[in-house]
Amino acid sequence: MGIFSNIAALFTVQGNKAPNKGNTANPNTDKRMLQGNAVDELIMSRLFSVPNKAKQAVSADTVLSLSTVWRAVNIIADSIASLPVNVMQQLPDGGKTIAYQHPVQRQISFQPSQIYTKYNFFHTLVTHALLYGNAYAEINRERATGYPKNYTILQPDRVTVKERNGVVFYEVLQAPADPANGQLKPETREVRASNMVHINGISWNGITGLQVIRMLADNFGLALANQEYLTKFFSDGATIAGVLKHPGRLTNDAMQRLRQSWEGTYGGSSNSGKVAIVEEGMDYQQVGLSPQQAGATDTKKLTISDIARIFGVPQFLLEDLDRATFSNIEHLSLLFRQHTLRPWCKRIEGELNTKLFPYDEQMRFMCVFDIDDLSMSDLNSRSQWVESMMKWGILNRDEVRAKEGYNPITDGTGQEYYVPMNMTNPAQSPQPDTNAV
Prior knowledge:
This protein is α+β, with helices and mostly antiparallel strands and 437 residues long. The radius of gyration is 31 Å and the shape is flat. It has 3 domains: 1-238 and 290-377, no CATH class; 242-287; 378-426, no CATH class. It contains 13 helices and 11 strands. α4 runs parallel beside α10 and α8 packs antiparallel against α10.
């Protein structure tokens, strides 16, 4: 028995009965896992499907084969990965500045390791978190300073969160059990919680995120079943859907030859639009879509709405513009930034701030995503923002130029702040002249 055969044995479904792994919606499931009393097994796998009522092969790979899921995951991961992220230092006067000299700054803003760039690093972590509910990146630290040296992204289906004597740690699967080679137990290694960046989604215990694909397997299964049905309908059926009527009785050989001739001439998408020619008194009667076939297209629209709801992505961003208007797209974009991207950024920031900095630096240094960068996508909005910041003295010209990627003004005048002339301090307002006649 090979390695993959042993892994498959853990996920074998006998009949329609799923293996007893506990209810993922039950808080006790995560509690049992944290206590380390459960049998060692993969949490989730790209190779094996999750049981669902639609009886579809629901796994990370099959779910990503849905164009709506592909787009939804990419739009969130791309948006977060494209945001500038910097190590900010808290100044004594309450201000903040980018800590360019901090050891974490180059890694987190440019290249976390030699394997992947900052963009690929965050894109992969967000993708894992969206599909598996958990994303893991192991921190490899410098021995001398203790600061992170680089990071290694781990497959989420190979990491299990456990607890021993009140201490949480991570068990990473190195190799599954292989009795044929004398390996009776899986080969694992332990990683301390302080050396693991763990980004989770919805959770019962605040540590382990619920498995998205497993929790919503029926939703994804319906979408896959509908896609399979429509694919078979358009690929296997004759393009001209109808009935050939013959006045006489055909032999089996004649009927078979007629069927092959008809399907070879008019079947398939490449023959769409051809004119059917019938002879020998035959009659062709066109048949419209059945209610089941017509309902499949409506079901596809419903699955798009369902997937958009699961990931928190407006439907117009999934290229579904049925209900999009010029007036509501801007508002929906704002809601997407506020209620989808911002919470994910805050999750990542919180995890980075507690794992990348020593305890005595955690109040002075922090990783921050510049989510406002998304609102600067069009020149009109950007120019209005710049004008407002300078008009009310919030930013000076050099600060604005730095945000726009320009060099500061050489004569130093860019450091001056400006406010409207009609704005004064009431406490310093000029008193009326009492000597005036």
